[in-house]
Design brief:
The chain has 286 residues and is of the alpha+beta class. The chain is built from 11 helices and 8 strands. It has 2 domains: 166 residues, Sandwich (Jelly Rolls); 103 residues, Arc Repressor Mutant, subunit A, CATH 1.10.10. Helix content is 44%, strand content 16%. Strand 3 and strand 4 form a beta hairpin.
Length: 286
């Protein structure tokens, strides 16, 4: 069994004298070499220079062809997979608490909803946009090797520019898009967003149907029609994904994980996990 790690990006810098810094840039293959699911505690921006990649973020699946840029929120469970072609990409991590130093608005990053919003985590770029983003990434890489007094402030400003440039690209592309009439797809998108926030405490289909002011029967019909899976299957998949990630952290007992995931006791957690994986939590962990 392959592990599903919680990657702290600073741990990737073993031997680096700047291992404690609040940002980190690497080639994607170096930072996330494993094809397994993982998460980080930092915001991530990935610039795809060549080739193609598949990105899974929680339950959302995106395929991207270069040139493109990905944005991933902290703690989202993600997985990068190649699509059978060579790719080249760079990924930039940064921590919110340090990035916001000097900001009067502690919710400043929340306005960049492309980190969380369905369908906006991957955006294609034209040649001019790609060159612009590449120049910003190059500047950050260059400045990261400096020890000048204002290096941190400059890198913070460059990241801020990148965020605003991504927002501008999204807005320019959305301006030319027709309004969608796919109700099932819209409901599915809303459901997966709600599920990412509530799946630990709320596992009844009726809760999510109520949030969207639909009857459970009609809600279930729309989800099944749009995805081929039932709402209950989506809930179980999200819970299973979270379980697999937490089981990789051996500092927490299986019993503690069971209670943290809102199971009534470890036995119920074990039965749920074995039903969906064919193995016990302990066997999976080992």
């Amino acid at each position: 069994m392959k592990s599903i790690p919680y990657i702290e990006y600073t741990k990737l810098q073993t031997g680096d004298k700047e291992a404690g810094q609040w940002y980190y840039m690497s080639h994607l293959a170096n930072a996330c070499a494993s094809a397994d699911y993982h998460r980080t505690s930092a915001y991530a921006i990935c610039l795809l220079n060549e080739g193609a990649l598949r990105l899974e973020s929680n339950l959302f699946v995106n395929k991207a062809q270069a040139p493109a840029i990905f944005t991933i929120a902290p703690s989202a469970i993600r997985k990068f997979s190649d699509l059978g072609v060579n790719y080249e990409a760079r990924i930039l991590f940064f921590r919110k608490e340090v990035f916001l130093e000097g900001q009067t608005d502690i919710n400043y990053l929340d306005k960049f909803d492309f980190f969380e919003k369905t369908g906006q985590q991957v955006v294609s770029l034209n040649a001019a946009q790609f060159q612009q983003f590449r120049s910003y990434f190059d500047l950050i890489h260059e400045k990261a090797n400096e020890t000048a007094p204002h290096t941190t402030a400059i890198i913070r400003s460059l990241i801020n520019i990148i965020l605003n440039e991504i927002e501008d690209v999204h807005q320019s592309q959305q301006a030319g898009q027709p309004v969608t009439t796919d109700k099932g797809g819209h409901i599915l998108s809303q459901f997966k967003t709600l599920l990412s926030s509530h799946f630990i405490q709320e596992r009844e289909v009726s809760f999510y149907a109520g949030k969207m002011h639909l009857t459970p029967k009609y809600f279930s019909y729309l989800i099944k029609q749009a995805s081929g899976k039932t709402a209950g299957e989506w809930i179980s998949e999200m819970l299973l994904l979270e379980s697999k990630v937490r089981l990789q952290d051996k500092s927490h007992s299986i019993a503690q994980i069971a209670y943290d995931l809102n199971f009534s006791d470890p036995s119920h957690f074990g039965k749920f996990f074995k039903k969906h994986t064919g193995m016990s939590p302990q066997k999976y962990r080992n």
